Amino acid sequence: MSTKPDKDPRIMVEDDRTGMDPVTLERAIYDHLFYTCAKDEHSATAHDLLTAVSHAVRDRLVHRWIRTQSSYYAHDVKRTHYLSAEYLLGRALANNLINLGMYENTRKVLARHNVDLADLLELEPDPGLGNGGLGRLAACFLDSMATLGLPAIGYGIRYEFGIFEQLIQDGWQIERRDPWLQIGSPWELPRLEYTIAVNFYGRVEQHVDERGRLCHDWVDTQQVLGIPYDLPIAGYGNNTVNTLRLWSARATRQFNLAVFNAGDFRRAVEEKTISEAISKVLYPADHTPEGKELRLRQQYFFVACSIHDIVRRYKKVHDNFDQFADKVAIQLNDTHPAISVAELMRVLVDVEKLPWEKAWELTVAATAYTNHTLLPEALERWPVPMFERLLPRHLQLIYEINQRTLRQVHIASPNDNALLQRVSIIEEGPEKQVRMAHLATIGSHSINGVAALHSELVKTKLLPDFARLYPNRFNNKTNGVTPRRWILQANPLLAAAISKRVGTNWPAQLDSVKILAGLDKDPAFIEEIRVIKQAAKERLARLVAKRCDVILDPQALFDVQVKRIHEYKRQLLNVLHAISRYLEIKRNPNCDLLPRAILFAGKAAPGYAVAKLHIKLINDVAAIINTDPAMKGRLAMAFIPNYSVSAAEIIIPGADLSEQISTAGMEASGTGNMKFAMNGALTIGTLDGANIEIREHVGHDNFFLFGLTEAEVSATKHQGYSPMEYIQASPKLKEALDYLDSGFFSPDDASRYHGLVKGLREHDPYLLCADFDDYLRAQAEVDLLYRQPNEWARKAVHNIAKMGFFSSDRSIREYADEIWGVRSLDIELPSKA
Questions:
Q1: How confident is the model at residue 2 (pLDDT cuts 50, 70, 90)?
Q2: Which terminus of the chain, N or C, has fewer Cβ atoms within 10 Å?
Q3: Burial class of 411 by CB neighbour count within 10 A (0 to 12, 13 to 18, 19+)
Q4: What integer is the mean pLDDT of 577-592?
Q5: How far apart are CA 547 and CA 98, in angstroms?
């Protein structure tokens, strides 16, 4: 630490320990190899070197981190507190090197020691703290908050195993625990001093205090400790380092020695096992009462820890709560943290002794809710008896919130009992349920969807009564993704080509890439884009060969659908197209069909049997296609196992065609659609989620549109949808279904897909049959255009150039300006002079 006598010695500056020049960096890396890993160059493993480099980079983050946090306190800024059950962060080292501007120097330093930085980066495990788009969006948002210099902190759970590792055995998904922490993480710092005791179960006692107020005491509870682990989130090109605080569950009593000595070894560690199950696994299966209760315990655990931390931090510089909503913004990322409305009320009313009216005013003013789904089954509901047993005081508070809300509704709409039932937080039925989306909506000053269509459907279909009750609360914030990870890190050749044309500021100002649209007829630029795409395809082909043992021709069109496996996302529609294409070649070997490689990736929830059957189907069809000599050089198909952020960084740049084919009105937004487009893939898709806005920005001519609109989907269902009418009218669809039903693609079990085909013929809730022929029509347009390589590349350029709107920086600016009221703060590091 370098200081001058007249300077505050607590203020760190960049000195010989944390300098960014190659000489200092090299010494730092090998100091860590020696002192942190206790190795020299001769005994060090590749993992030791990864650890040393990571710690050297962390050193350079730490004093920016400390400076950032001290600046927030010094200026008493308003902060955003982002609560999310998922953070799909991806690997940290490359991202931190890029955001700190250290990537090239580190590469050169390691090269002098015959170490390839790219090889080293591949050794870092992906933190499996998210399931899909929700968690990846949260990670992009953290990146943007730091890049924009916004005072913010993320809160979540430090899952010990996180999302499962996906294996494919005999075509079926097999889940295996993913011990991402097995070798430790150099990025996390435990903050034991901020450990929090979280209560469960027990009962509520009432008493009147000395001032005549009715008080509630939650007593006889079981406690679990919440231990915070902090991860630094570095902004790009600035000195801001924000915090992601993840909570790990620990038992209050780790080991009962008396019980152990009595010979009951299992019961001696029972409390530890039960308590720590809370942070073991992301989304435990909830098809049993025990699984449901564990999920609710998870959600309350991380919310209680986070609310406690928020209040603690506020009270460090304020002696009353008058400014609470002026200094605290709480964003609920979907309904998982919705219990925070009741928890904040509990803390303000029971602990801080605020009057109910004041506490409610502050809670609503501080809290905002983002809805991420239109699917009713995804809007969480908890059985009242379970809720009452686990969180008795919170159920009382929810009943009070509900009663006061219903009274207001009754006054506004007298005697409308149906309305009261619809807006009630408590859903009546054989078993009463607590509706968490209703709690979040009533307890927030802002409710937003994540794409223009989605936000409109939230108002008109999902929560129409609330939209009428609270019209000023509803708004749209279209999602975005960070260009730092999804172009600069994932596609360095494309990043270099962009920088050569528009300068080097575009990663923080993605709008500037619109200049590229003027180069759509520049032969040199078009050729460069084609070469870059070809290199990315060759890299993707190597990944497929390694993971799937399938050899792809990089000259073929790479047709890619990667996302969570779900019926509404319609991987099945894509498979039916692949079957139809296969049968066309078999029927007419001389047909002039464009060579294609159809690629899938994604995980199915462990308890989602239909989705897992779809994975088996993809692999069954791929097995037939890839072993048929008639398909060689014409059609290939593969399911890439264990989709992750690091896999996406290879898959997305290598895609020619992006499949965004969900049933219109089902997808909230999507973010994969944005990542593909900004890497030069053309989209085939429906008018669903953010597809609509992407199409508007890139141009209708640069997007392959098909399918019913949301309004047409609704009308078709309302009129009485009959999928057999569409099947009979479509020879290719009928043929594909007949082959599937016959057992041709499952010779080991001819009946495997009978139920699937029967469901399509009789029900087809996601309207695959209605959209099939139009999907084939759009795919024929894809074939035609891909035969014109310069025209295809020209349209790819338009996709890249028009994606500025879909930067998560734009999304976060809108949240900050229109919901949070949070302002950027420049973090300055003191100079050595």
A1: very low
A2: C
A3: exposed
A4: 96
A5: 28
pTM metric for this prediction: 0.95
| Euclidean distance between CA atoms 190 and 143, whole angstroms | 21
The residues annotated with a catalytic role in the active site are 372, 563-564, 569, 671, 675
Which residue bears the tokens 């309350």? 300
Provide the residue type at 412 as one letter: A
Q: Do 280 and 159 meet the contact criterion of CB atoms below 8 Å apart?
A: yes
Max distance between CA atoms of the chain, in angstroms, equals 92
CB 158 within 8 A of CB 190: no
* DSSP label at residue 12: -
764-768 mean pLDDT: 98
CA 630 – CA 156 distance, rounded (Å): 51
d(CA 758, CA 774): 22
CB 56 within 8 A of CB 29: yes
Q: Return the beta strands (E) in 298-400 as ranges.
A: 328-333, 367-370, 381-383
Judge contact between 57 and 105, C-beta under 8 A: no
E-state strands within 576-620: 596-601
Render pLDDT for 226-275 as a digit per residue (tens, 0 to 9).
999 999 999 999 999 999 999 999 998 754 556 556 665 566 556 677 77
Q: Which helix (H) or strand (E) holds 388?
A: helix 384-390
Report d(CA 266, CA 505) in Å as an integer. Answer: 59
Neighbours of 712 (CB within 10 A): 16
**What number of other Cβ atoms are within 10 A of residue 377's Cβ?**
7
> Is 427 in a helix, a strand, or coil?
strand
Alpha carbons 830 and 229: distance in angstroms, whole number: 28
**Angle 97-98-99 from CA coordinates, rounded to 5°:** 95
**Confidence at 337, pLDDT banded by 50, 70, 90:** very high
Residues 6+ apart with CB under 8 A from 558: 537, 540, 552, 597, 599, 654, 655, 656, 657
Strands of 112-270, DSSP E: 152-157, 165-169, 172-176, 189-190, 196-200, 203-208, 214-219, 222-234, 241-251
Strand 381-383 and strand 426-427: the pairing is: unpaired
- Could you say which DSSP state residue 462 is in? I
For residues 280, 286, 288, 293, the Cα torsion angle rounded to the nearest 10 degrees is 60
Residue 757 forms beta bridges with which residues?
A: none
Rounded to whole angstroms, the Cα distance separating 474 from 449 reads 8
CA distances from 391 to 155, 205, 274, 301 (A): 21, 14, 17, 11
Half-sphere exposure of 211 (CA within 13 A, CB side): 5
Helix (H), strand (E) at residue 65: helix 46-75
CA-only gyration radius of the chain, Å: 28
- CA dihedral for 125, 130, 131, 133, sign (positive or negative): negative
Counting every residue written for the chain, the total comes to 833
Type of residue numbered 732? K
Q: In this structure, what token pair is assigned to residue 71?
A: 């600046």
Torsional class of 263: left (φ above 0), alpha (ψ -120 to 50), beta (otherwise): left
Query: What's CA 427's distance to the chain center, in Å?
Result: 29
Burial string for 186-224 (b: 16+ CB within 10 Å, else e) reads bbbeeeeebebebbbebeeeeeeeeeeeeebebeeeebb
Comparing CA positions, the residue from 404, 145, 55, 680 lying closest to residue 137 is: 145
